[in-house]
Structure formats: structure tokens, C-alpha cells
Amino acid sequence: MKLILAPMEGLTDPIMRDVLTHVGRFDWCVTEFIRVTDSVLPDHIFYQYCPELRQHAKTNAGTPVHVQFLGNNPEMLAANALRAVALGAPAIDLNFGCPAKTVNRHRGGSILLDEPEVVHLLVKAVRQAVPAHIPVSAKMRLGYMDRNYTLDNAHAIEEAGAAWLTVHARTKAEGYTPPAFWDQLRPIQDALKINVIANGEIWNYQDARTCQQQSGCEDLMLGRGAVTTPDLSLCIRQHRDHACLSWAELLDLQIRFIRGPSKTEIAMLGRYKQWLGMMSKHYPEAQALWTQIKRLKKIDDAIQILCAAQQQR
Fold first, then answer.
1. Rounded to whole angstroms, what are the CA distances from 153 to 27, 84, 118, 168, 212?
2. Strands 92-96 and 34-35
3. Per-residue pLDDT reduced to its tens digit, 69-93
4. Which of 227, 225, 305 is nearest to 269 (CA)?
5. What pTM does this model have?
6. Whole-angstrom distance, CA of residue 29 vs CA of residue 283
7. What single-letter DSSP state applies at residue 66?
8. Rounded CA gap, 199 and 226, in Å?
9. Model confidence over 26-53: pLDDT tens digits?
10. How many other C-beta atoms are found inside a 10 Å radius of the C-beta of residue 311?
11. CB-neighbour burial class of residue 9 (10 A; exposed 0-12, middle 13-18, buried 19+)
């Protein structure tokens, strides 16, 4: 079984990838999407989204990082993919799943699932551009507003030369509202020769098992569940529904996170508050910590509270 950390805009950024791969056992992770329009992006953009390129495209824990692109221009997607590979990207992923209105309005992400022939063209262009030993993959949803083209898109991606396909088990219209329709992945799994990776609503070990049983997919991509419960990958691998890490160990992770590199103090503190708010859904201790930190404006003050919480454990 392979477990992959999902690409999530504004969430699984380089700092979060560092923290989650430090504690978890992921086979690889995928960057937030890099939007491509009508030019080859300057190198600093690649390093902004994937600073791991400077260290053999691996997190500090040694987990490989794949680079994901989003766009609808085949020539430019191909050229940017080639540049990413030149900078050290070990694999290229293409985004056909993003449900954001601003992205879809510019004919990117999940809206392309109404045009399987375009999906095929984009994957094929990238596959033909990068060296044969570099895997090209794609991530999609079951569809845009409906599931009329689910298998058409899956076949289009496979026939274009993708090495594997990840499917979020909902349409764009279904967003992130439970449930995820894991059973709808089985026809895709049965129809394709390439590997299909299941994604969506995997919050614990039991979810992982049920998803595998219903979808027929062995490999799983973990998204919000991995952020909300940082030891989720460990629990799945150890077949445990209860926490693998203590709250004291999770406090260490939070300090590692908040001390990570960031452009501004306010941005870093905002990211930490976002993460703590997500964890508060699962950990009572996080809820208590949130009440102390939510109004803070200085990182040092937050670190002081975290260190005090450590000493109380």
C-alpha cells in the first residue's frame, strides 16, 4: 500500500510537507498546483512552490516531492514541466480536480473534465515533452457538475501516457461535502490498466479500509485528514484507529511548524492558527490551545505558550 500526501492549495505548503513527512510515512507528496498560462515561469517560482528542488526534490525527512501544474495550454504546460524536470522534479502531476471558481472561470482544474479530449491533449503534451523515465500522472474528480465523462476522462488520461491516476471521489459540484463516493472509483479501477489512487474523506484507519474495499484501490492519497490528524499515515499503516502520537509529541510538531521559514510573521501565525483550528476538531487539547492563541499577533508569544504547554505534559 502506498500513502501519498495530497496537494492542497494554501494548506500542504512546503512547511506543512516538512512537518507531516517528518512524523508520517508517506511514499511521496505533491506540491500545491503551479498555475501555467502563456509563458515559462522563472526559476524562483518553481523554488517558491517546491524549495525541496534544492535538496534533490525531497523533504528533510527524505520523502520525494512531485511537482503539480494546472493550466489549459499544452505547449506551455509541456515547457514548464520540462523546466521543472531540469531543476530536479522526479515526477510531474497535472491538476484536473481543483474546484475553485477563480480557477474554473479561467478554464483550469475540474472544469476541463467536461472536455475529455482536452484532458488527453494536455497529458499527452507533457508526457511527450519530459524524459521517458520521469513519470507523468494526473489528479481528477468524478466530474465537473455531473459524472457523464468519468470514464472518458480516465481513459483519456491513460491513453495519453499517464503512469497513474488519482481520483477524488466527488464531482466539483459536490465540493468537499461528505460523503465521498468511494464505490464510484471501482469502475475506473476495473477499466484502466494503470494504477488508480483513491482520495477523499479518509479521516482514520477505518475510513482507509472502507475506501479500499469499496473502491478496489490499494493506494490512498490523504488530504485534510492528514493535516487534521498528523499521525494519520502512521495509524493507517499500523492498523490503528486511535492516536499513534501523544499530544506532547504533537506539540513538538507545532513548534517545528511555527519556526519554519515564512515571508512574514503575520502569515506564519495565520497559517499556524489555521492548522490549530483544524486540529481542534480532533484533539480537545488543541481546542484549549486555540482559545489562548487565536488573538495573538506575535510568533514568539505563540511559541512561549506552546513551550509552557510542553512543560505541563
1. 26, 25, 9, 13, 22
2. unpaired
3. 999 999 999 999 999 999 999 999 9
4. 305
5. 0.96
6. 25
7. E
8. 12
9. 999 999 999 999 999 999 999 999 999 9
10. 8
11. middle
